[in-house]
Amino acid sequence: MTYxxxxxxxxxLFILTILMGCSNSKHLSCKNLPNExxxxxxxxxxxxxxxxxxxxxxxxxKNATLVIKENKIFSINGxxxxxxxxxxxxxxxxxxxxxxxxxxxxxxxxxxxDYPTKGATLFxxxxxxxxxxxANGVTTVLELSARVEHFGQRNEIIKQKVIGPRIALAxxxxxxxxxxxxxxxxxxxxxxxxxxxxxxxEFIKVYSGLNIETxxxxxxxxxxxxxxVVGHIPNAFKGRLEQAFVPNFDMIAHAxxxxxxxxxxxxxxxxxxxxxxxxxxTWLTPTLTTMQRIAEQTHSLDGxxxxxxxxxxxxxxxxxxxxSNHYNNETDPKRIAxxxxxxxxHFRLVKAFKDAEVPIVAGTDSGVSGxxxxxxxxxxxxxxxxxxxxxxxxxxxATRLPALWLGIEDKTGTIEVGKYADLILLDANPLDDISNTxxxxxxxxxxxxxxxxxxxxxxxxxxxxNSCNLGKDQYNWKKRKAY
Length: 483
Description:
8-stranded mixed sheet, TIM Barrel, alpha/beta
C-alpha cells in the first residue's frame, strides 16, 4: 500500500470513529440522565399562567400562554404547537430563574499533602450538589473563588450530564503570604489578570490582603482585558476608603466590606459609602444572610442544627459547620456585640444604597457555615425586603439586575421571547409576599421541566445518601487530611 493510500485510509477511519463517538454520546447522555423523570428537549405550553416578566416596565401578563421550544421561550400568547406538552398553570405565577451573585461551590479538592499524580482526596457528586440550586429555582450563579474544578462542573452541565445552573467564574487574587493566587507587586497583579483571562475566567475578584498599588494595578489591568472586578475592599484602605473606588471596581462583595470601615456604624457613614459607590458606578451585593448566620453562630450552633436544609448538605460540610465552627469556637463578648451591631448596620446600609439609587443584587456567600446553597437565596430576598426593598426590587436583585451585571441580559434575567427558558413556576404571587418564591411548583432549567414531585424525590434520595455517610471518618472535618 502506498503512503498516500495509507494516509487517506487512516483519515477515513479517524472520521468514522469521531462520527460513531458523536452518535454514541447522544445515547449516553440520555442513558445517564440524573433522573428518569426529568423531561428534556421537549416543546411545552404553559397555559393560564400569570407571568411576572421582570422587564423594566414591571409588566405582568395575566392568564397567559407561554410556549417553550427546545431550550428557549418561543412565544407568549401565540399559537400552541401540536406536539407541545401542556402544563396547566391556573392561579400560578411564572418568574425568571433566580441568580445568586456570590457562591462558593463544593468541588473535588485535595486536603492532604500533595505529590505529582495524586489528585483530589474529596470527591463531590456534581449532580447531588447542583440539586440544591435547582430545587430552589436558582438557575445562574457567580462563583467567586473559582478553580479548574469549577470549569469541569460547568462543562458537565453544558454537556447535559448534570442538571444545574449557569455558572460564571471569577478568579480570586489576594496579597500577603498565603496560598492561592498571590500578588504583592503591581507587575504580579497585572500578570495574574492576564493569566486569568488566558485561562478562561470571566471576572476578577480582589481580596483583603492586597496592598494599594497592587489592587489598583489589578483593577486597571482587568479593565484593559474587559473583565469586571468584584470583591473585598483591601484592609490597606482602612481610613482612606475613597481611594478604593477606582474605575472598573464594579461591585462590592459584602456589606461587611463597608461596615469594617466604620468605627461607630453611624447612618452618616452608610450615606457616605453609598455616595462613593454611586459616583464610581460600583454595585453592591450585601450578603445580609451571611452576617446574620455568623451572628447566630457566635451565640449558639442551634440555628445550624435546626436548619431544615442541613440534611441536604454534604456530610463533610455538616461536620465542619457543627464540630469545627470557628465563628462559635473563637467567640467572645466583644466580638459578639460588634457582629450584632454590624447586622443592624447592614440593614441601614442597604436602605442608604437604595436611596442613593445604587444597584443592589442578591448574593449569599453560600458555603459559609450555615449558609446553604439554594435555600440561602430565598433568605437573602426576605432580608432585602426587611432592609427596605420592595418585593419587586428584591426580585429584580435576583433576576434582571444580575443578568445585566454579568453581561447576559440578552439571554436571561427576564421573561421575553428568545431568551433561555430558565423559569420558576410558583403557587403564589411573590409580588404580594417575597417568601412566596419558596412556593415552587416546578422549575425550567435551560428548557428542561422538573416538577415539584420529581424535585422532592431527588431531594429524598440525597437526604438518605447523606444520612448513610454521616459520622464516617472520611467525612469528619478534623480527619480530612488523613484521606
